[in-house]
Amino acid sequence: MLAGVWAESRPPRPPVRVWRDWALFSGLVAISLIEMLLRDDRAWAPVVVGVSVVVAACLLWRRTRPLAAVAVAFGAVLAFDTARIVAIDATGLQSIAALLVLPYALLRWGAGREAVLGLGIILVWLPVTLVANPASPAEMVAGYGFFLFSAALGAAVRYRSRSHDREIEQVRLRQRNELARELHDTVGHRVSAIAVQAQAGRALSAADPERALATLITIEEEASRTLTEMRALVGVLRDGTDVDLAPRRGVVDVEQLARPGGEVPGVRVQVAGDIEAIDPAVSTALYLIAAEAVTNATRHASGATHVSVDVTTRRSRVHLRVHDDGGAGTTSPSHDGYGLRGMAERASLLGGTLRAGPDPGGGWSVDASLPRTVRPS
């Protein structure tokens, strides 16, 4: 634990010196001069005021140079108190109480080793000043308590600020993961479809030019939609918009997944029931699950000739089934990316279930069941 404290780095972005710091410095110097003028003992006035000015000046560097500020301020007061014990007969000024600000700044803005060394300097000074200013045991405990409370307050504020920064970073990480999933589920699906159609068009170009031309038209349409979705996602990244505000597709767009068969598996889509009453979040999840399942079937289903997509709306739930007639063990992607895991996560987050695997009747199927409406958490 001590090694971890020693290796602790400084918090980033310490505040720059502002007008309030100069106002504090000016106020402390003015109070020191006024206090000195009101005292009867003025024999060591220049020394006493000089120490007060040094302490006030150190406050200007308490954030950017916390250890140096503590060392200079408490070093000056330590030398002054030592001289009071040994050689001179002078009393300190009440304005030196500004020293209480430095332990707070040390623990708030200092590195771990700076905090340890600075607290060591403070703990060396405290018994010396208590000798120079004789005090009762209760006053001694109170003196230690004041400085330890100041340091503890600085550490608490530092911990709270770090926790807040960590929460912000976690939110950003979740947004990046969400955007990565959106890229995979929407743009990735369309790029895969474009690649498959391009392969089919190349195969048909010599034997059937008309079908090859129709394939090129389909590629053009898919590319336009992909470009639109990509621009929307890039706009979210550029403008800092909440990910949830990005354009989303829904069940009504599932029918766009349909395509005729040929060189690539055909996709048949059938939607039954009242899809208008489906919650938007559920509708989006259904579309993305269907698109991902179709993409997996196109990429990985060996020997598949057609893929069926069926969406059925019941009283309280919506059922999605994507089935292909390919090899039963070849539809699932081999890598653990945003595919099956992403589909299962989407269904689970909305209170639904998802099963993907070989179908007893042959081929591979993805079955998802989600509630029509999402209950507020």
TrEMBL record:
Signal transduction histidine kinase subgroup 3 dimerisation and phosphoacceptor domain mapped to chain residues: 176-240
Reaction catalyzed: ATP + protein L-histidine = ADP + protein N-phospho-L-histidine
Pfam family, one: HATPase_c
Transmembrane segments: 21-38, 44-61, 68-86, 92-109, 116-135, 141-159
InterPro entries: HATPase_C_sf (IPR036890), HATPase_dom (IPR003594), Sensor_HK_TwoCompSys (IPR050482), Sig_transdc_His_kin_sub3_dim/P (IPR011712)
Boundaries of every Histidine kinase/HSP90-like ATPase domain copy: 283-372
GO cellular component, one term: membrane
GO molecular function terms listed in the Swiss-Prot or TrEMBL record: ATP binding; phosphorelay sensor kinase activity; protein dimerization activity
EC numbers: 2.7.13.3
Entry keyword Oxidoreductase: no
Region (Disordered): 351-377
The protein's enzyme class: transferase
Keyword Transmembrane helix: yes
Keywords of this entry: ATP-binding, Kinase, Membrane, Nucleotide-binding, Phosphoprotein, Transferase, Transmembrane, Transmembrane helix, Two-component regulatory system
Name assigned to this protein: histidine kinase
